[in-house]
Amino acid sequence: MTSGTQNRWLSKTAVNGVLLIAALYTLFPLIWLLTAATKDAGNLLGGDVFSFEGFDLAHNLSELTSYQDGIYFRWYGNSLLYAGIGALGCSLVSVAAGYAFDKYRFRGKEKLFALVLLGVLLPSTALSLPLYLLAVETGTVNTYWAVLIPALVNPFGVYLSRIFSAGYIPDEVLEAARIDGAGELRTFWSVGLRMVMPGFVTVFLFQFTAIWNNFFLPLVMLSDKDLYPLSLGLYNWHSNANADPTFYPMVVTGSLLAVTPLIVAFVVLQRHWKAGLTAGSLK
């Protein structure tokens, strides 16, 4: 084996080793969650989590279903409502705004877009108190709207949509649609939106994940447990587990079920998502 071949083999081995360690590090919490969800409180707190000894998943699921008349699945439905409708509405708003910033000329466009970019720099937690005060003024505190309406706006989604619009929608196609008699809304809906669908799906996935994992805004806005999303409901159970350890199996099992929609969304939409991520390298 020549020195060059040996160096390439060592480099390849080192890279693969680093990737394997990174993959194991990434999968470790999921593996822990899978095995821990099969334990009762005693085995879970006993320390031997990475085994299926004392398999009790069916009992944990039964407790999850029956506790407080199945309030966990009401939280699950709330999270699906917040994340599904919020991500869909946000994607439409973001794509429409990005399309307008890219394809239209109007006074102060770049200054307005600079304000959008400024919004990207603001952490969402910093906006929770102003949003709460606005919700108080509009009477939407402790309602579904208090969580849904803020989810419709995402400055990063607008920025990303403008990039996708510039890369995916040729101006010539829009001109052809206008010559054929299509109005501006018809041109956007029938031509522009379809051509920028990878960007739409990318924004949808980002926003769906952000809303599904959102914790601080529901904590500020909601006091009725029937309106809680999963993140807030599981946090409430975890707080109770400090005094009553029987909550731990429900928290862990509920957390395992909570990651399912995210996995399903990424698997189902991965074709569009991958196309969106690689768009910049192909253009």
Automatic annotation (TrEMBL):
The UniProt keyword set, sorted, is:
Cell membrane, Membrane, Transmembrane, Transmembrane helix, Transport
A Gene Ontology BP annotation from the UniProt entry: transmembrane transport
Q: How does it sit in the membrane?
A: Multi-pass membrane protein
Q: Does the keyword Transmembrane helix apply?
A: yes
Its subcellular locations are: Cell membrane
User: Domain of life, per the record?
Assistant: Bacteria
Q: Which PROSITE patterns match?
A: ABC_TM1
In terms of SUPFAM superfamilies, this protein maps to:
MetI-like
Work out whether the entry's keyword set contains Transmembrane helix.
yes
All copies of the ABC transmembrane type-1 domain together span 76-269
Give the CC-aspect GO terms. Answer: plasma membrane
Primary localization class, coarse:
membrane
Annotated TM spans: 14-35, 80-101, 113-135, 141-160, 195-215, 247-269
Name the protein family. Belongs to the binding-protein-dependent transport system permease family.
Q: What is this protein called?
A: Carbohydrate ABC transporter permease
